[in-house]
Write a structure and sequence with these properties.
Radius of gyration: 18 Å
Helix content: over 70%
Largest sheet: none
Number of helices: 9
Structural class: mainly alpha
Number of strands: 0
């Protein structure tokens, strides 16, 4: 790869941060208001709050993962920029899908779309991680440790597939629960490191 095709990461990181901020803002704006000012009305919206909570954790986790990776990356190329744009395209659907799941928590289709969105994000992150390793040869070992592909990408993928199997057996909410498990596991792992 020629040196003139490489660029620094500042603009990409700023773009990414802005998109995540917008997604989180839209997520909270999509939360419905309780019908009355009572605990019963708030409790009636529990599925919306649960879906919001999971999606917020996913946003926070993805932002943290992206920040950790790009903290150790010096250069990117056009391929990495487009992988990030594809990542944002897929990830920007989270508010829409979250509302779909919140309104239909026990339906397979919304739950499956929710899980498939996260699997697509996982696949894009995997391809992006491999591309970043190629472009940043001088920091390869450090980047590899920071990305920890096994923990950050393979394990969530297996958990998502497990959720799909349980959902197909008649428990669609398993997909959302598996998303929550992967986020909690990821947060605990990042706090330990």
């Amino acid at each position: 790869m020629s040196e003139e095709n490489l660029m620094d990461t500042n603009r990409l990181e700023a773009f990414y941060d802005a998109i995540i901020a917008i997604i989180v803002t839209v997520l909270v704006l999509e939360l419905p208001q309780p019908a009355t000012a009572s605990l019963a009305s708030i409790w009636a919206l529990k599925t919306s709050y649960f879906a919001y909570f999971i999606s917020f954790l996913v946003c926070a986790n993805l932002w943290q993962y992206h920040h950790i990776i790009y903290n150790h990356v010096d250069k990117i190329n056009t391929r990495i920029i487009w992988l990030n744009i594809l990542l944002m395209l897929v990830f920007s659907l989270v508010p829409y899908i979250t509302t779909f799941v919140a309104n239909n928590p026990n339906s397979f289709i919304p739950q499956a779309i929710y899980g498939l969105d996260f699997i697509a994000v996982d696949i894009i992150l995997f391809v992006m991680a491999k591309s970043l390793l190629k472009v940043n040869e001088e920091n390869r070992d450090y980047i590899k440790r920071a990305m920890n592909i096994q923990t950050a990408l393979y394990t969530p993928f297996v958990i998502f597939i497990f959720g799909f199997v349980i959902a197909l057996l008649g428990y669609p909410i398993a997909i959302s629960i598996c998303c929550l498990i992967t986020m909690v596991r990821s947060i605990i792992a990042s706090l330990r490191s």
